[in-house]
Amino acid sequence: MSARSGVLAAGRDLALSPALLRWLLPFGSIGAGLLAFGAFVLLIGRDPLEVYATIYEGGFGSAFSWNNTLLRAAPLILAGLAVAIPAQAGLVMIGGEGCLAFGALAAAAVAVPLLPGLGSGALVAGAIAGMAAGSAWFALAGVLRVRRGLNEVISSLLLSYIAIAVFNHLVEGPLRDPASLNKPSTLPLPESAMIGAIPGLDVHWGLAIGLLACGLAQLALSRSTQGFALRVAGGNPRAALLVGLPVGSLVVASCALGGAAAGLAGAIEVMAVHSAASASVLAGYGTTGILVAFMARQQPLAIVPVAVLMGGISAAGSLLQRRLELPDATTLVLQGLLFVAILAGEALMPRGRR
Amino acid sequence: MSADAWFTVMVAVLGGAVRVATPFLFVSLGECITEKSGRINLGLEGTLVFGAMIGYAVSFHSGSAWLGVLAAGLSGVVFGAVHGGLCSLRGVNDTAIGIALIILGLGLAYFFGKAYIQPSAPRLPSIDLGGWATHPALRAALQVNVLFLLGLALALALRWAFVNTRWGLELRTVGDSADAARALGLAVNRTRIQATALGGFFGGVGGAYLSLYYPGSWNEALSSGQGVMAVALVIFARWRPMGCFWAALVFGGAGSIGPALQAVGIQAGYHLWNAAPYVLTLLIMLASSSRSSTSMGAPGELAMTR
Amino acid sequence: MNPSRRSLLRAVGATGLASGAGLPLNASGQAPITVGVIYVGPRDDFGYNQAQAQAAAALKKLPGVKVVEEERVPETIAVQKTMEAMINQDRASLIFATSFGYFDPHMLRMAEKYPKVRFAHGGGMWTEGKHPRNAGSYFGYIDGAQYVSGVVAGHLSRSKRLGFVAAKPIPQVLRNVNAFTLGARSVDPSITTRVIFTGDWSMAVKEAEATNSLVDQGVDVVTCHVDGPKVTIETAEKRGIMTCGYHANQSALAPKGYLTGAEWDWSTPYGMLVDAARTGKPHLNFLRGGLKEGFVRMSPYGPSVSAKAREAGDAARAALTTGDFAIFRGPLRDNRGGTVIPAGTVLEMTHLELEKMNYLVEGVLGSIPG
Could you tell me if C60 and C171 lie in one domain? Predict the structure, then answer.
């Protein structure tokens, strides 16, 4: 009897429907991952219970921890969408960091000069510019795939590295703020003009924008005709072509939307956190977004809890370092074990899902 | 710029090509084997960095750099086997597992590697192919490590083996059509797990080269994404072993253009020069592609999203 | 005003012992304190972060001082949260933000949010009136030490070609390149320095390639300004050329070729800032010091350093320590033929103009890109 049918049998015995099982399994997997991490902690001679308690306290144990977690999760939501949307069309785009860079640069370049004239409207302009820049860059990879058969895994990766090089070149050179000598940056937004915090929370509005984007994406994918068309094109391109769907355009459109999400993430980083575009903006969110999207099985709504989990682990890592003097790498081990466990748990999922 | 300066730049690019290419070569050859069997192991970045760490650590403790290389290879086998085993479970996405294993590999490497940043371990020796040269730059460029030559030998061997051996044929059948393979009585999952483990071995060796030869040091900033890039290079090489060899050389050489030019005083646009390998790879891919050839040469079972 | 590190530690240690446990203030009026130190990279990088960590380790030895550290904190919202966490969770009242990118906007924002907490930044341009008083910056004039390195290198280089592996062309880096070159050219004006910019603070392969390219061009002494000099020093040693270290002492990595090095001694400013915090004195907003004040020091000379070079190095160090010798004085030309410091002008080490340096002096082969 295979493991999966064993689990199903157990579920039946406990009068659990496959649907409920589908819900519970991720938590079971997380539990298994935590146990594996506990074994690792024992191996290095520390107390697992102490470590668990510190992780909880650091990520989810207080209002401060929650703010910390949500703040770290905010950019990951849009970064996850950047991968998940093209994935609906069957593409694996791993170059989100480059779109984020261009988005950040575009926002900085557009919002600052427009500030005197438009006021807060400049922030909207910045966001639009960011989305446009990111969108164009990913769309390029999409076009290369559709028209020249260039595999998007490698092309999006190459384009990302190129984008980062151009970003650095522009930030240190033509777009540099002359006053930013030891930390080359673009002209900054004044503190008062930046995106503020959500009332009641210590987190900027970028979190809400990410949540909104996920909601819209989920709605569009599941309810709209284009969303359906996209999923058909991704699931079975040959059938889609036979049915007469414009597969090429759908692919490029999905890339454009994904790139827009990454570009928006970059724009928000500048307008809510950094006030200007500099090398500090390239913090790897685009790359982390790949993991978030895959963990969430490319489902926009699932991206949110995954991003929060990653934010929580990151926040916990901070406390682990200071409280227990465990190195930063400990959180990487935790993430790795958790995610291997969650992914392996997929194997036990009842059949009949998407 | 003087003729001598130009000569030195070209020689530096040649030397850099050989120096920098070797880890790319090993990782991409390993990934080539894995992908021929129909599976993608994106996790080689983690295998590479962990291999670098364990290679350095074992070399330090045992006094033998080659033992370190072996240890790195074996650790790669473990990572590869884990990847292969997990992916053979139904419904598990190999790209996702690969990314999770990158994180786990990096975490374990950094965690246990902390103790090895300060100490100095025995390094791999080089072979002086340039003893005849009088120009110091040429002589330095021709200081070659055995691993580079081994990598070349491996590429040639794989090219021959994929076509002429039973192992190669079985591997490709499993990778092109799992159904056909099963009809022939081949154990699809076992073949893939073995292929991934073997690929992991070479990924680990590639990592050991980084820490034990060039740059020849262990610290957390050692890799700049070589593992991920090398996986991409396999696509660029169209899953051909000798293609991997040339891809690695082109990539390594292009990465040395920037520093070589700066050494003769050309600094302008240094970030852009650093992007040269990526631009070059993209241009070559564009030039060699056409509307009709979508992923020509790709193993049939290689699906990126499932 | 600036006690030497040793006497400071002695004073604090003695009073610490005298106070006994349990008293809120010791005899010197020093309250117990929790200090937070934040690093952008790993603490053991044989370079920038390690130098700061060594100072943090010295602080830990002081009685009544508790140190919480966090490493690998990126220059993003994460560092703001780390500072807040240190304040809220660990009750830190003095925070050392050691990486340059932490200053604006992250540390400044936190300084405004927590006016009772002191923030000390490594290298930032704290400006009266513009920045809050509970924020401040500390830095060392390590270009003085690089000058001495240059003097030693100048005596020992046979090819008369020096090399410099640099991360980015920012003022702090350019100042080091120039000081190193000026030191060497004070020995022999025909010496030139070739500089290569790798593009970022930690790029192992690029640093190795840069070093190799420099050696290919005939360079026989190399130094660097990157976060972790380990790769550069080891690559140079393998190629058989000489090296001058930076940030921390890397002589263990290059037993044959290591000449000397420019090291930080952050425990001096750290000690001063902690003392001010504990005794309720005002926060030191703009703390700078060089060889004289003990903020920087030279690594011991390596085996290849000749007696003549040692003498010259000691003389240069003495001149910089007594304070009447200025490295940057006119007439000084840049490597494009222009005059950057007119004749008769002397820019003291403390001169703020130097913190905006954007040129390479005559004798440096290379240009500032962009």
Answer: no
C307 within a domain of the structure (yes/no) = yes
- Show the low-confidence residues of chain C (pLDDT under 70): 1-29, 323, 370
Is B171 at the interface with chain C, CB within 8 A?
no
User: Do C111 and C189 belong to one domain?
Assistant: no
Per-residue confidence at A16, pLDDT binned at 50, 70, 90? Answer: low
With a CB cutoff of 8 Å and minimum separation 6, the contacts of A65 are A57, A58, A59, A312, A315
**Domains contained in chain C, number:** 2
Per-residue pLDDT, averaged over B281-288, amounts to 87
Instruction: Tally the C-alpha atoms within 13 A of residue C239's C-alpha that lie toward its C-beta.
Output: 32
- Regarding whether C106 and C60 lie in a shared domain, the answer is yes
Rounded percentage of chain B residues whose pLDDT exceeds 90 = 49
One domain for residues C92 and C241:
no
Ramachandran class of C22: left when φ > 0, alpha when ψ lies in -120 to 50, beta otherwise: left
**Taking CA atoms, what residue in A is nearest to C109?**
A191
Pick the CATH number of A47-325 from 2.60.40, 1.20.144, 1.10.3470, 1.10.10: 1.10.3470
Angle separating helix axes C204-216 and B3-36, nearest 10 degrees = 150
Is C327 inside any structural domain? yes
Inside any domain, residue C370 = no
Phi, psi dihedral angles at C261 (to 5 degrees): -160, 160
User: What residues in B contact C216, CB-CB < 8 Å?
Assistant: 8, 11-12, 15, 136-137, 140-141, 260, 263
Q: Which of residues 69-88 of B touch A (CB under 8 A)?
A: 86
Q: What domain range is C182 assigned to? A: 143-263+295-365
- Taking the Cβ of residue C113 and every Cβ of chain A, the question of whether any pair is shorter than 8 Å is answered with no
B221 to C194: CB separation less than 8 angstroms, yes or no: no
Give the pLDDT confidence score for residue C26 in this predicted structure: 60
pLDDT digits (tens, 9 = 90+) for A177-194: 988 888 899 999 998 889
For the entire predicted model, the pTM comes to 0.89
Q: How many angstroms separate the CA of residue A61 from the nearest CA in chain C?
A: 12
Residues C231, C273 within the same domain: no
Q: Is A149 on the interface with C (CB under 8 A)?
A: no
Domain locations in chain A as residue ranges: 1-46+328-354, 47-325
Q: Is the residue at C117 inside a domain?
A: yes
| Summary mean pLDDT of chain A | 90
CB-CB contact of C315 with C327 (8 Å): no
Q: Could you say which residues from 105 to 134 on chain B have a Cβ atom under 8 Å away from some Cβ of chain A?
A: 105-111, 114
CATH classification at residue C85 = 3.40.50.2300
Cβ–Cβ below 8 Å for C209 and B114: no
Q: Tokens 């081949």 appear where? A: B186
DSSP-based three-state secondary structure for C138: strand
The pLDDT assigned to C21 comes to: 37
What does the pLDDT read at residue B301?
A: 76
Which of C161, C200, C212, C215 to mutate to test binding with chain B, by most B CBs within 10 Å of its CB? Answer: C212
Sign of CA dihedral B41, B45, B50, B51: positive
CB contact under 8 Å between A347 and B92, yes or no, is yes
Q: pLDDT value at position C328?
A: 93
Write the DSSP symbol of residue A14. T
Burial class of residue B268 (count of CB atoms within 10 Å of its CB; 0-12, 13-18, 19+): middle
Query: Is there a single domain that holds both residue C164 and residue C236?
Result: yes
Instruction: Closest CB to B140: pick one of C45, C194, C215.
Output: C215
Concatenated DSSP letters for B154-216?
HHHHHHHHHHHSHHHHHHHHHHH-HHHHHHTT--HHHHHHHHHHHHHHHHHHHHHHHHHTSS-
Pair C23, C92 in one domain: yes
Across the interface, whether the CB atoms of C168 and A184 are under 8 A apart is answered yes
Gap from C273 CA to chain B (nearest CA, Å): 29
Shortest alpha-carbon distance between residue B235 and chain A (Å): 7
Q: Are residues C224 and C311 in the same domain?
A: yes
